[in-house]
Amino acid sequence: MKNHLVRTHRSAEQFPRDEHLAWRIAEVATDQVEVAPETAEMIINRIIDNASVAAASLTRRPVANARAQAQAHPYQPGAAVFGVGGSYSPEWAAWANGVAVRELDFHDTFLAAEYSHPGDNIPPILAVAQHAGRTGRDLIRGLATGYEIQIDLVRAICLHEHKIDHVAHLGPSAAAGIGTLLGLDAETIYQAVGQALHTTTATRQSRKGEISSWKAYAPAFAGKMAVEAVDRALRGEGAPSPIWEGEDGVIAWLLGGPKAEYSVPLPGPGEPKRAILDSYTKEHSAEYQSQAPIDLARRMRDRIGDLDQIASIVLYTSHHTHVVIGTGSGDPQKFDPTASRETLDHSVMYIFAVALQDGTWHHERSYAPERARRPDTVELWRKISTAEDPEWTRRYHSTDPAEKAFGARAEVTLKSGEVIVDELAIADAHPLGARPFAREQYIAKFRTLAEGVIAPAEQDRFLDVAQRTAELSAAELSQLSFTVSDEVLARAPQLPKGLFS
After folding, report:
1. Is there a contact between 307 and 356 (Cβ–Cβ < 8 Å)?
2. Which one of 21, 112, 208, 245 has the largest count of C-beta atoms within 10 Å of its C-beta?
3. Domain MmgE/PrpD C-terminal spans what residues (predicted)?
4. Is 463 part of any domain?
5. Does residue 375 lie within any of the structural domains?
6. What is the pLDDT of residues 377-387, one digit of tens each?
């Protein structure tokens, strides 16, 4: 990996294009290096993972609405949309599938200077691959780039510190991945990356206070914008540049300011793109920083015994966890029994309470309104708080995989005065955890979430195709989706009409 210093440059400065971060990203995207076998295998795992969570969310209102919008844009050759047959304009297929994948907050994650869900790259890159008649090998190459670029940006550039949403790293990564997929030249990818960043930079209010369905829509929008940016760049249209480093660019006015510097690691020429191997998926449908606390709560249940005897619980954790999903956020909504699912998903206090009581976590039952409003749950929930511990913050930011941690230390004080303490650094499903996910676990997750949604024969067909992704011809790539019955689709709520029929 080579580190690139990125800072603001005045318009009057001489700043060659080949030193722009967007150009260096384009160089990575145009590198013809082969994808390592272990990277290709993990990409297939994540394709299965995305389909799993899309199946589980298929009949939820935001997903049904996004799907209806896509279905209003049929196109040939086009791309597939989860749940239904037919072909649709690729940017709208990317939109619908992106919402389905993101709705339940249940797919892969990478956390460093910034947060990310790099699996959000799959819907736009796959949609373009299907539309453009590319092979499974091409798709894997494109996805390796998408994961690499997003994760490398996340390693180096913190967005949330400046209240910018994390999808600002996704637009550029998806555009770069599409560039690799299509074999585009550096100039075209450079312009597409710049456009994608410019059109997908927004505030973090989508993940603050009363969190709405836009939390799921935001990455899908970024993917859609990446597809459209590539289309415009192919037609010869340009982007604001230098997009990151310009005097009125992203760094100067949206991030650290004119004097800020970032060191962005990117693969050198001929260096394989392996970043996906540093990411990790979720066993539980909750914000990633809740994964280890859920496992910790399940482990502590027997030691605590009678939960009515709890006086208070403090979760000592990293700055990120404390201020994003903990009491350090200052969000009263995180204690509101009538809060939206999206808000409860970002309340580690609620999640720890329910995991303690139930000893499990379920993507629907754990968030059900009647579950959130149970009096004993509300009582326990409001006894829980978080506190930042500098050591957990240090471990959160560590670049040593053996030290990096996203967990917490729980101190449970009983009414008797007894204090029960336990901690868990990483989730059980993490690559270094107690039960790391491998292909078997990804398939089991798919089977579990697809049960009652996708017919068994269709499950078998999809899993067969997905596991042969690297061998798929262009004609076969449209099969990398799934359909469900009309009866399943009818479970979605009645939708009001929009502008599109």
Report:
1. yes
2. 21
3. 284-468
4. no
5. yes
6. 999 999 999 99
The pLDDT value recorded for residue 126 is 98
* Amino acid identity for residue 344 in this structure: L
359 and 229 share one domain: no
Q: Which residues of 57-86 are buried (b: 16+ CB within 10 A; e: fewer)?
A: bbbbebbbbbbbbbbebebeebbbbbbbee
224 in a domain, yes or no? yes
Cα separation, 371 vs 377, in Å, equals: 8
Residues 47 and 196 in one domain: yes
Q: Are residues 32 and 169 in the same domain?
A: yes
Nearest residue to 69 (alpha-carbon basis) of 57, 84, 47, 54: 84
CA distance linking residue 60 with residue 489, whole number of Å: 10
pLDDT of the residue at 402: 85
**Helical segments of 375-436, H only:** 375-381, 390-397
Domain containing 340 — which CATH number? 3.30.1330.120
pLDDT higher than 80, residue 208: no
Listed in sequence order, the residues at least 6 apart from 322 whose beta carbon sits closer than 8 Å to its beta carbon are 328, 329, 386, 387, 388
Phi/psi region, residue 176 (left: phi>0; alpha: psi -120 to 50; beta: rest), is: alpha
pLDDT at 189: 98
315 burial class (0-12, 13-18, 19+ CB within 10 angstroms)? buried
**Is there a contact between 108 and 120 (Cβ–Cβ < 8 Å)?**
no
- Looking at the fold, whether 193 and 311 belong to one and the same domain comes out as no
pLDDT tens sequence across 253-297: 999 999 999 999 999 999 999 999 999 999 999 989 999 999 999
Number of domains in the chain: 2
109 part of a folded domain: yes
Tokens encoding 409:
């230390």
Do 105 and 196 belong together in one domain?
A: yes
Residue from 266, 340, 429 nearest 60 by CA: 340
22 pLDDT higher than 80: yes
- Picking from 403, 424, 445, the residue at the C-terminal end of a domain is 424
**What number of other Cβ atoms are within 10 A of residue 487's Cβ?**
7
If phi > 0 it is left, if psi is from -120 to 50 it is alpha, else beta; for residue 359 that is left
> Of 424, 458, 479, which marks where a domain is finished?
424
Measure the CA–CA gap between 202 and 207, rounded to whole angstroms: 11
Domain that holds residue 337: 288-424
Check residue 405 and give its pLDDT: 93
- 304 and 178 share a domain? no
> How far apart, in Å, are the Cα atoms of 143 and each of 41, 178, 244?
12, 8, 23
Q: Do residue 30 and residue 174 come from a single domain?
A: yes
CA distance to 32, 138, 143, 152, 204, per residue, from 172 (Å): 19, 19, 13, 11, 18
Average pLDDT over residues 417-423: 98
- Owner of token pair 């459209």: 228
